[in-house]
Design goal:
The radius of gyration is 22 Å and the shape is globular. Helix 2 packs across helix 3 and helix 2 crosses helix 4. It has 11 helices and 7 strands.
């Protein structure tokens, strides 16, 4: 399972990732050198050529700070996702979805944000660190810097305004793109425990494979009972897969042809 943390700078992504790693055995994905960065991007481009091209085009169209975004957002985001697939349970601190906030130079339309979110939702689950832009700036004082502050006061003021609007749009777009999104509103700290709701969210989903020899569809009561059972399992949050052996389907198809 791959979980991605998403949010504004200083929203607690790194702290939450460390707690998930220490308490639940998740592996924080890190790119250790330039060779890894290159090889994992090569693999990502081969396996996801449409997304790779789409993101690169977005980067070109939002060309301000091109080199910074190319390395820190585009290349590292691609590589982290690709490397995460090596692990049973991996957590990505700022991955592909961070492009929603870090690539645009201007405020996006909601339709554009939703399209981008749906294309980049490649992980199993997403945790949104719900912190306002004001809290993000205030928290950054404790660590002594804020994202991109080295690019000047004027740029920072303009980007913070853009970021606040795009974050609100991204949060809404992600929530509508998938049910596997958790809005994390808890105050984050190494001395604090993760909420029971978040712990429940990251637990791997249980899966049941229901195998039957009954011909489906059917008007008989047995068929109705099977479908009702599967429906009841699904309502509890269990991932249910109904398997009908091929010879049953083939026999049913042959008989229906006659």
């Amino acid at each position: 399972m791959i979980v991605e943390l998403f949010g504004l700078p200083a929203s607690g992504k790194t702290t939450t990732a460390r707690k998930l790693e220490s308490s639940f055995g998740f592996k924080i994905v890190k790119i250790n050198n330039k060779l890894e960065l290159f090889l994992y991007n090569l693999a990502f481009a081969f396996l996801h050529p449409v997304i790779f091209s789409y993101l690169f085009l977005k980067l070109v169209l939002n060309s301000e700070l091109f080199r910074y975004k190319l390395i820190n957002i585009f290349l590292y985001g691609n590589a982290k996702y690709q490397k995460a697939k090596k692990y049973k349970n991996a957590i990505i601190d700022q991955g592909l979805l961070q492009n929603l906030l870090s690539t645009p130079d201007d405020i996006l339309m909601y339709s554009s944000m939703k399209e981008m979110a749906s294309k980049l939702f490649l992980v199993d689950k997403v945790i949104i660190m719900d912190v306002s832009i004001e809290d993000s700036i205030e928290r950054s004082k404790d660590r002594g810097y804020w994202a991109r502050d080295r690019f000047g006061t004027e740029y920072l003021r303009r980007w913070q305004s853009c970021l606040a609007e795009n974050y609100a749009l991204a949060r809404r777009a992600l929530a509508s793109s998938s049910e596997h999104v958790y809005l994390h509103t808890q105050t984050v700290g190494l001395d604090k425990e993760l909420s029971p709701e978040l712990i429940k969210f990251i637990q791997p989903s249980k899966r049941i494979i229901y195998i039957t020899n009954v011909e489906l569809p059917t008007v008989k009561a047995r068929g109705v009972q099977i479908m009702k059972s599967c429906e009841a399992f699904a309502r509890t949050g269990v991932q249910i897969e109904l398997v009908i052996p091929w010879h049953v389907l083939e026999s049913w198809r042959i008989m229906s042809d006659h």
